[in-house]
TrEMBL record:
Recorded superkingdom: Eukaryota
Record-level GO cellular component terms: phosphopantothenoylcysteine decarboxylase complex
Keyword Hydrolase: no
Any one Pfam family match given in the protein's UniProt record, by short name: Flavoprotein
Protein family membership: Belongs to the HFCD (homooligomeric flavin containing Cys decarboxylase) superfamily.
Keywords assigned by UniProt, alphabetized: Coenzyme A biosynthesis
InterPro entries linked: Flavin_trans-like (IPR036551), Flavoprotein (IPR003382)
Flavoprotein domain span: 27-192
An annotated GO BP: coenzyme A biosynthetic process
Protein name: Flavoprotein domain-containing protein
GO MF term set: FMN binding; phosphopantothenoylcysteine decarboxylase activity
Taxonomic classification: Eukaryota, Fungi, Fungi incertae sedis, Mucoromycota, Mortierellomycotina
Length: 198
C-alpha cells in the first residue's frame, strides 16, 4: 500500500528550542547605587542592559538616599527601590552588583552594618549568589589603609568580586585612581556573571 502524504495542517513545525528564550527564566539582576557621583551612570548602565539583553534579564535598582542626589529614578528603565522598601529582595536576585560602591558603604559592609536597604540585603545575602562591587571614591580615600583592609574583608571573607576603579580626572578635580570602571566594562561583567555574554 503506497504511503500517503501527511496533510500540512497536521505537521508540527520544527522549533529551535536552543534559541527560544521563553523557555528559560530571565536572570534577575539587582543593581545597587551608593553616594558617589558615579551614580550618575546608573540610567546609562540600565538602559544599555535593557537594549542589549532586556529579553533575557529582569533588573531592579536599589539606591541609597545619597545616591539619589546624582540621578532621577524617572530616568531609569527599571524599578528603583529605596530604604523604605523591603530587603527580601535577597530572595529575588540572582546576583547583586553595587556600582558605585562609595567609601562609606565599603566600610559599612566590611563591618557588617545594616542601616539602609543595600546593607540590609547584603547582611542577609545567600552566599551561593554572586556579589560584585565597583568602588568609586576620591584618590586619597582609595589609597587609605582602611580601604585595602575593607576590600580584603569583602574578597577574602565574603567572597565578593571587585571591579577596580580606574585612573582619570575625578569630579573633585584630582587626577588619579578612584573613578568607577567604565560603564561598558560593568555591563559586560554583568552579562558574563549571569551567563549571557555574547
Amino acid at each position: 500500500m503506497p504511503l500517503r502524504r501527511i496533510p500540512d495542517h497536521l505537521i508540527t513545525p520544527l522549533v529551535d528550542y536552543s534559541k527560544d528564550t521563553v523557555l528559560h527564566a530571565k536572570k534577575k539582576i539587582l543593581i545597587g547605587a551608593t553616594g558617589s557621583v558615579a551614580s550618575v551612570k546608573i540610567p546609562l548602565i540600565v538602559k544599555t542592559l535593557v537594549e542589549e539583553v532586556g529579553h533575557l534579564v529582569e533588573i531592579k535598582v536599589v539606591a541609597t538616599t545619597a545616591a539619589l542626589h546624582f540621578f532621577d529614578p524617572k530616568d531609569v528603565l527599571a524599578e528603583v527601590l529605596t530604604d523604605k522598601d523591603e530587603w527580601s529582595l535577597r530572595n529575588w536576585a540572582d546576583m547583586f552588583i553595587i556600582c558605585p560602591l562609595d567609601a562609606n558603604t565599603l566600610a559599612k559592609l566590611a563591618q557588617g552594618l545594616c542601616d539602609n536597604l543595600i546593607t540590609c540585603i547584603l547582611r542577609a545575602w545567600d552566599e551561593s549568589r554572586s556579589v560584585i562591587v565597583c568602588p568609586a571614591m576620591n584618590t586619597n580615600m582609595w589609597n587609605h589603609k582602611f580601604t585595602a583592609i575593607h576590600l580584603s574583608t569583602l574578597t577574602d571573607v565574603l567572597h565578593y568580586r571587585v571591579i577596580p576603579p580606574i585612573s582619570k580626572l575625578l569630579a573633585c578635580g584630582d587626577l588619579g585612581v578612584g573613578a568607577m570602571a567604565e560603564y561598558r566594562t560593568i555591563v559586560e561583567e554583568i552579562k558574563k556573571e549571569v551567563g549571557i555574554s555574547h
